[in-house]
């Protein structure tokens, strides 16, 4: 101990850095100004801590009146710090402040996820989606903007945690220096908080007493616990399958000899057909395309499906519709794709009566899920021969992807019919620039789209403007529907059956707060018997479902489709 004291004395005797010496000199020379600065820093620290404790986790709740409440966590924290000696107090204050900083980051993530995906951030499952977000920014706004956003997010996180820790340490020291008055203030604040809670005191409809931070911690904890429980329950559920043991010859016998196409249109949601600003242009297009297909001899039936996802994570919608399981998070997706649960597309492969192919222009890296989907061959962004420009996130226009599909697979002579899964990407946010329809015979390698892309709107301009985003979203949906139905009109045959649907609603900035998760789904065919098989569904004639058309959960579609077309259930059990 004496040795330690001697070392400490020597350290104190070392000359202080010049900057510290100058600051001390300035403080001594201007005591009034120094005192004002010191108290200003105290006030700023208090504002930061109290503001963080009152921070909501949804964008609409971020209002000035939400920051005028009394947070219980501040009172409890003050009492705790007053009760501790110096060194434990500093450690506890730093940890408490860092925890507040982490909670603030989680609240900000909740706000972002709610705005884009219609749900809060899941600390167990959603870290991987941050990489997807960066990739989206890179594709939409360029690598520089994406890298800057990533670096900025990391720095902001570190800054929040550090500043909150320093702020609570400073406030803890201030409380200790004025222990008697601080104790009285904490007791008074606690009494007011309890009284306001007991009496339900509100100002302008907002409770005066707040325990928002504690509730946020509880919500995050519940989310983690529920996720871990759900993982085990879903693993068991995914091993049970109504059609898992059905013999190949008893799978979709009523579609034998048909070329069947399952097409997903990115972000094609109910808002596209019902929002007052978006719907007029989309419904005109859909009605015009219904009339064109009718003239070409096609009939159509349309209904609604409630998607398992919202605003993004399209693969959750695809897998839900095709597996018959509710796949609303990444853990469920990993579980089901690592198993052998029968997908609607794999049904055709298992039957042995179809060749199966996937057209995935949005896939730009290894995609092992192809085996689970039952696809013999997959064409990704690099396999379709496209040499034109990207349109924001979308690697190529839908019209080109469909033309390439026709050239590479659908238009070829075949020994047996073809089942195809096609993902159309031109309606992916941020909806700028957008492609335009061109002559099908003049598509070439896509280079002709250079001029279209250059003349289009800038992503940054559309993203920043909610009204503009809604308009351009509507245009993108009209383009995708036109591309798909013109392909069918031009290249379909008497034996073509097209099933197309949206994977999810667009982000809340476009679909609006509180929007449903419904998406349109349509079956199109020339053979009247194909549509007669689904008469019992009571779907609307044409490509546009009526507002009161039946609404199913998306995971109900697989079994209903298989049953309608003659598949015989042979369940597998866990």
From TrEMBL:
<keyword id="KW-0472">Membrane</keyword>
<feature type="transmembrane region" description="Helical">
    <location>
        <begin position="148"/>
        <end position="173"/>
    </location>
</feature>
<feature type="transmembrane region" description="Helical">
    <location>
        <begin position="185"/>
        <end position="205"/>
    </location>
</feature>
<keyword id="KW-0812">Transmembrane</keyword>
<feature type="transmembrane region" description="Helical">
    <location>
        <begin position="67"/>
        <end position="84"/>
    </location>
</feature>
<feature type="transmembrane region" description="Helical">
    <location>
        <begin position="91"/>
        <end position="109"/>
    </location>
</feature>
<dbReference type="InterPro" id="IPR017850">
    <property type="entry name" value="Alkaline_phosphatase_core_sf"/>
</dbReference>
<protein>
    <recommendedName>
        <fullName>CDP-alcohol phosphatidyltransferase</fullName>
    </recommendedName>
</protein>
<feature type="transmembrane region" description="Helical">
    <location>
        <begin position="36"/>
        <end position="55"/>
    </location>
</feature>
<keyword id="KW-1133">Transmembrane helix</keyword>
């Amino acid at each position: 101990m004496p040795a330690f004291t001697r070392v400490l004395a020597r350290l104190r005797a070392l000359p202080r850095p010049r900057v510290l010496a100058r600051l001390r000199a300035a403080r001594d020379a201007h005591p009034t100004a120094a005192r004002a600065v010191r108290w200003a820093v105290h006030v700023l620290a208090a504002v930061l801590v109290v503001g963080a404790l009152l921070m909501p986790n949804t964008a609409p709740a971020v209002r000035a009146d939400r920051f005028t409440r009394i947070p219980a966590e501040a009172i409890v924290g003050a009492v705790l710090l007053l009760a501790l000696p110096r060194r434990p107090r500093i450690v506890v204050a730093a940890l408490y402040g860092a925890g507040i900083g982490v909670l603030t980051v989680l609240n900000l993530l909740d706000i972002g996820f709610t705005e884009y995906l219609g749900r809060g951030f899941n600390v167990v499952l959603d870290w991987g989606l941050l990489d997807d977000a960066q990739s989206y920014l890179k594709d939409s706004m360029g690598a520089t903007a994406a890298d800057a956003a990533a670096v900025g997010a990391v720095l902001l996180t570190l800054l929040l945690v550090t500043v909150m820790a320093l702020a609570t340490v400073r406030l803890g020291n201030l409380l200790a220096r004025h222990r008697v008055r601080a104790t009285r203030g904490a007791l008074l604040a606690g009494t007011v908080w309890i009284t306001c809670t007991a009496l339900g005191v509100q100002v302008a409809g907002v409770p005066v007493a707040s325990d928002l931070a504690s509730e946020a911690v509880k919500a995050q904890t519940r989310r983690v616990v529920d996720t871990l429980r759900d993982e085990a329950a879903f693993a068991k559920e995914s091993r049970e399958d109504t059609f898992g043991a059905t013999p190949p010859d008893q799978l979709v016998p009523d579609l034998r000899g048909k070329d069947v196409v399952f097409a997903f249109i990115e972000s094609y949601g109910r808002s596209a057909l019902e929002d007052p600003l978006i719907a007029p242009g989309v419904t005109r297009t859909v009605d015009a395309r219904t009339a064109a297909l009718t003239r070409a001899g096609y009939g159509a039936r349309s209904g609604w499906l409630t998607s398992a996802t919202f605003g993004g994570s399209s693969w959750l919608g695809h897998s839900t519709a095709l597996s018959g399981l509710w796949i609303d998070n990444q853990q469920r997706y990993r579980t089901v794709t690592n198993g052998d649960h029968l997908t609607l597309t794999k049904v055709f492969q298992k039957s042995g009566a179809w060749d199966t192919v996937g057209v995935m222009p949005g896939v730009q890296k290894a995609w092992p899920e192809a085996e689970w989907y039952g696809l013999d061959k997959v064409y990704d962004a690099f396999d379709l021969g496209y040499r034109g420009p990207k349109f924001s996130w979308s690697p190529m226009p839908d019209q080109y992807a469909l033309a390439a599909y026709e050239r590479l697979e659908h238009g070829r002579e075949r020994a047996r019919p073809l089942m195809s899964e096609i993902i159309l990407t031109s309606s992916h946010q941020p909806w700028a620039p957008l492609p335009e329809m061109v002559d099908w015979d003049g598509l070439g390698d896509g280079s002709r789209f250079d001029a279209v892309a250059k003349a289009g709107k800038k992503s940054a301009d559309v993203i920043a403007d909610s009204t503009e985003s809604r308009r351009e979203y509507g245009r993108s949906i009209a383009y995708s529907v036109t591309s798909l139905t013109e392909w069918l009109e031009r290249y379909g045959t008497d034996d073509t059956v097209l099933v197309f649907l949206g994977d999810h609603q667009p982000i809340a900035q476009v679909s609006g707060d509180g929007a449903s998760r419904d998406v349109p789904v349509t079956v199109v065919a020339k053979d009247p018997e194909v549509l007669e098989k689904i008469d019992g569904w009571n779907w609307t004639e044409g490509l546009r479902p009526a507002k009161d058309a039946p609404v199913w959960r998306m995971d109900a579609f697989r079994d209903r489709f298989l049953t309608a077309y003659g598949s015989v259930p042979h369940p597998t059990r866990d």
